[in-house]
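During the second half of the funding period, the structural biology subgroup turned its attention to how the target accommodates small molecules. The most pressing case was nicotinamide-adenine-dinucleotide, which had performed well in the primary screen but for which no bound structure existed. We therefore specified the complex as follows and requested a full 3D prediction, including the ligand pose.
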Amino acid sequence: MKKVAMFGLGFVGLPLALSFSMRGCQVIGVDIDEELVSQLNQGQSHHLESYEGRGIEDILREQLDAGRFRAVTDGRIAMQECDHIIVTVGIPVEKQAHDMKPLLSVCHTIGQGLKKGDLVLIRSTVIPGTTREVILPILEEESGLKAGQDFDLAYSSERIAEGRAFHEFEHMPAALAGWDEEATRRAFELISIVTKAPITQASCMEVVETSKVMENISRDVNIAMSNEFALFCKSMGIDIFEVIAVANTHQRVNLLTPGPGVGGYCLPNALYYLLPKAQELDVPLRLLTTARQVNDDMPRYVADLVLRNLPVAPSKARIAVLGLAMKDYSNDDRMSPALAVIEALQEAGCEVRAFDPAVSCSYPFKVDSLEEAVSGAHGIAILARQHGMDTMNLDLFQQLMADDGQPFIVDTKNFYDPEIVWKQGFKLERL
Ligand SMILES: NC(=O)c1ccc[n+]([C@@H]2O[C@H](COP(=O)([O-])OP(=O)(O)OC[C@H]3O[C@@H](n4cnc5c(N)ncnc54)[C@H](O)[C@@H]3O)[C@@H](O)[C@H]2O)c1
């Protein structure tokens, strides 16, 4: 069976590593995060993934016990023992600028340990052209080996949604392309161990790199359109969620859901992977840039919905934020719009208490229970749905919320039936 090195053990890398080991591969996971590596080797993970009714920790422990998976911090060990190398270390974006350092550092490590006959498969989302123009030269220079002659290099996009990783590795159609035909064939063979859905073999790596970025941006733009329509519908006095439900009965229309913004690692970053290449090629990206701005403006809009319902001055107001994750039922709060909503509310002078049972990061404003968040609050902002967060307990809200002024709920998730909320004496503000 194949010996697989998985560089990066985050949202993608860990479940992907376990997907290979569950199918009999010998997998070594590599991550620079020492604490993460130590937790994984003790069978601990905070991820919410599951497969066929079993949680990721169960699967992790089973694979550790079977000796098919272990995590290390030293990539050289994995390079010595494995000949199928998969990269899932991404390109972070901070203040609209991308940072290649983590990916470059991984490529240097891989290059230094590269052996004849190895296959390197890049699964990170990248700036189109990166595999050929940036990664290939590093691997060749560090190793003194030649792609096509001594080792193989391929790119395959990663399409999973967090929370559905195991299922989607297996059932989501994949796309790949290699540096040459042999690399394409070997990447196909490797991915086929896990993926049972159709695997498209594209004509070149740039097609797959670009299609990945395009897939993400298409969702960003689609959501931006729904968000812009949300503003329009609110002024019209009609319900955006109903408008979308009606529009989506058209068989060739698929509008996504509006919300407090678009967060996470994937959708907001995609434009900043495309822009550097577009600038190099002198191609303007007017629509895509505007769509990003529309989504970036949403948290401020949601904060304004809260502020305009305050029964007291912002400096005397307390707001309960329910749901910190970047999307419903996720534990991922990276670049979450909820954080931007909270920042805007705090800037306006409000005190914020936020609760999310799935998010593990700590923040000064984060509390450990729904009761703590809601206690003494003048208003509630629902920013993400979560299991284990009883947002329907309106009696509890009524008992615990402040009594100076009418309590209100800003519902960005179309969670509540307005009749029920009104009957309980709350004001309801929807998107
Ligand atoms: N999260 C998703 O749902 C998703 C979906 C599709 C594609 N992607 C893409 O997959 C890639 C990985 O995303 P993710 O969400 O798993 O990221 P992540 O941040 O959860 O995981 C990346 C891991 O890489 C590790 N790392 C950083 N530098 C390293 C180095 N030099 N050597 C070894 N490990 C290193 C980090 O410690 C981290 O654990 C990104 O390119 C992302 O755009 C993510």
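Two results from this model are relevant to the next phase. The first strand starts at residue 3 and ends at 7. DSSP finds 16 helices and 17 strands in the chain.
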